[in-house]
Inverse folding.
């Protein structure tokens, strides 16, 4: 239960990649509706893999990247901005090198705030058309494939004798597993530090 909201901005992760938990952003929006904060949502690990309704969920600032579900190089940081957020951005009038305001007039002026990485933009356009189809007609198939692959990964993890972060004998936490991130517990007979060293000797680097 939200007792009080003292801040004008609220940051939410659509999928908490540290522990493989999808967050019901739509439900969160309902809970905070009375306070009307600017909703900043990290959709880096969810956009492209599961449905994300930026407008329908009233997400004011959406943060995503090209390197996750879109399967591209880590070359683009992408920001979605709502009309409400633009008003706040104009009010603050921040002028740093990472300011968003200069981007607002880009489509009319044709002047980009800095030299754009055209190859990365072209790659993203091509990937969206190829994988998701015209007007996102293939998006449902992509989401289904992510669900199937995630389920396969979870089954393989269990066959290896490892445990999922949300694993339980009763299976009551199974619905907390994300379709875009699979979190695995460190085996009981070792520590993360020991496991990390062994993996690095094999040329494998994992986050944990």
């Amino acid at each position: 239960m939200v007792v009080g909201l003292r801040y004008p901005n609220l940051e939410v992760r659509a999928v908490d990649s540290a522990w493989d938990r999808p967050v019901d952003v739509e439900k969160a929006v309902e809970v905070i509706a009375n306070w009307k904060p600017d909703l900043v949502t990290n959709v880096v690990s969810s956009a492209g893999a599961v449905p994300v309704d930026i407008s329908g969920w009233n997400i004011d600032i959406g943060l995503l990247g090209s390197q996750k579900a879109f399967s591209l190089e880590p070359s683009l940081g992408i920001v979605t901005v709502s009309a409400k957020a633009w008003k706040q951005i104009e009010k603050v009038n921040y002028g740093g090198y990472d300011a968003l305001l200069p981007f607002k007039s880009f489509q009319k002026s044709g002047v980009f705030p800095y030299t754009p990485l055209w190859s990365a933009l072209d790659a993203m356009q091509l990937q969206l058309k190829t994988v998701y189809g015209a007007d996102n007609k293939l998006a449902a198939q992509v989401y289904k494939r992510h669900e199937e692959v995630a389920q396969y990964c979870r089954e393989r993890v269990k066959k290896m004798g490892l445990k999922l972060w949300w694993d339980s004998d009763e299976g009551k936490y199974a619905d907390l597993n994300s379709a875009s991130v699979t979190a695995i517990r460190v085996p009981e007979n070792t520590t993360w530090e020991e496991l990390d060293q062994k993996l690095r000797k094999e040329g494998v680097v994992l986050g944990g």
User: Anything to note?
Assistant: Strands lie at 9-13, 15-16, 21-22, 38-42, 61-65, 77-81. The mean pLDDT is 82. The radius of gyration is 20 Å. The first helix runs from residue 25 to 32.
